[in-house]
Amino acid sequence: MTYPPSPPLSRHSNDSDDSLRALEVSQGPSTGTHRAGRRGRSYSISGFDFQRDLLPLSASVTDPGNLHGEGAEKNISLINGIALIVGLQIGSGIFSSPGVVVANTHSVGASLLVWLASGLLAWTGASSFAELGSAIPQNGGAQAYLSYAYGPLVSYLFAWTAIIALKPGGNAVISLIFAEYLNRMLWHTTREEVSPDDIPQWAIKLTAIGAVVIVTILCVAAKKLGTRVAVVFTTVKVSYLILVTVLGIVQLARGKASASLREPLFAGSSTSPSSYSLAVYSGLWAFDGWDQANFVGGEISQPEKNIPRAIHSSMILVTLLFLLANVSYFVVLDKNIVGLSNTVAMDFGRALFGPIGGTLFAFMVAFSCFGALNGSFFTSSRLVYAAGRERYLPAIFGRLHSTRQTPLNAALLQSAITIAFIMIGSGFRSLINFSVVASWAFYFLTVLGLVILRIKEPMLERPYKTWIITPLTFCGVALFLLCMPIIAAPAEAIAVLGFVLAGIPVYYMTQSTEDEGRSRVSREYI
Fold first, then answer.
1. 37 and 178 Cβ atoms separated by less than 8 Å
2. HSE of 373 in the Cβ direction (CA atoms, 13 Å)?
3. CA neighbor of 68 nearest in space, from 2, 133, 17
4. Residue 416 and residue 393: Cα distance in Å, rounded?
5. Backbone φ/ψ region at 255: left (φ over 0), alpha (ψ -120 to 50), beta
6. Which member of 264, 290, 348, 355 has the lowest number of beta carbons within 10 Å of its beta carbon?
7. In this predicted model, what pLDDT tens digit does every residue of 287-344 receive, in sequence order?
8. Angle, CA of 67, 72 and 1, to the nearest 5°
9. How many Cβ atoms from other residues are within 10 Å of residue 417's Cβ?
10. Is the sign of the CA dihedral 175, 176, 178, 179 positive or negative?
11. Closest among 198, 196, 171 to 343, alpha carbons compared
């Protein structure tokens, strides 16, 4: 007994039935030729074999190679999904954000509350993505969800922004941080009397480019290599944060806590709402990465169960580790030292073990950044691949390598753009600043899309369903975080709007008669 292939979601169709129902099997078991006509609604997305029957959104019955050829296999397990999320969350944020948070809150107690609040607020977004991921198990994450909720134009604008600016820009920043820490060890600049400015910029850029090349190879060399490497990196990084916690507990037990913990925890706390806003903003940046499993939803085994499990397990683990790591920082270092430092981990290691400790902890930060870069590249290449399958990019980027079955072309494109950002150097920092606005804007639209789909598609099977207050809370937080940079830097906000809107004419110029014909055939097939 076999089911007919599910019809694709046309990005040219205005028919309301060409929505999430494009993921459903049309008329149950089929023993003969599938007939055109209106589809039944009795079979949900969990009623058929995704490995064989789920088509990419832009596939057509006129393209037999799309039916069973390059569909993503379910080779990402729950552990792999957790490793991808945790691996990116434990990047550079937990080693740099503590200083920004305590500098704005002015007390240990308020700082820890901000970290807890940041984790919970990030969790509201993660829970919303868990529902979307379980109901729409497609590669591409927000790109697929935005298409279902708002139509193809908004989905394209997300892909346009993410592929050109958000993902490569973020990857460039991670790789440059990795390169700087690695070069600090090689150039022996972990000592206080040596300035990091002594490191040649060419050395940092060359190291960063080398890191990009290595992670690109890891992501495309073999189908499961990228996820296996992510598990290894995540295991080491979690162990490192546990070590930080243990060292803090030992210092506390020995009665060697810093002065900050011997005074009232909330003494001198800031009363400025804007200061707390900046602190929360920095905390949320450290937690960013909770949507990583959604980018590879089409490759996760039992996605309706494992995407929510991966997201919630990761958020529990990361929130706990971040809180304990911050406590350990304050046990060893005074809050004023933490507030002035953007290399808290190095200062932590140096305070305990001298220059050798600084070198060791610098290596661990570099290792964490490299692991985050590996996870980010793995999911970013899947976003480019999904955009290629949607015809948002030339079709060559939507193809898998013939033998390795990995998105080689997509990874090479992402690598090339990232290296271009690295070569530009400081010239792209303003672009990264305004990309934060674009990122939260699309987070807001995606989570709001969950609410829209609750109304638009009430019969959609949702294996995991979050409380409605969860996406509403996240939308409120996202709007608040959007207003902050818009008020503080209106020029960059206008640049974001202009960059996103520039994708609209590109979208319409890239529409081809082939795609239109493909969509008409698809609708006839439906």
1. no
2. 32
3. 2
4. 15
5. left
6. 264
7. 988 887 787 777 788 888 888 999 999 999 999 999 999 999 999 999 988 888 877 8
8. 50
9. 20
10. positive
11. 196
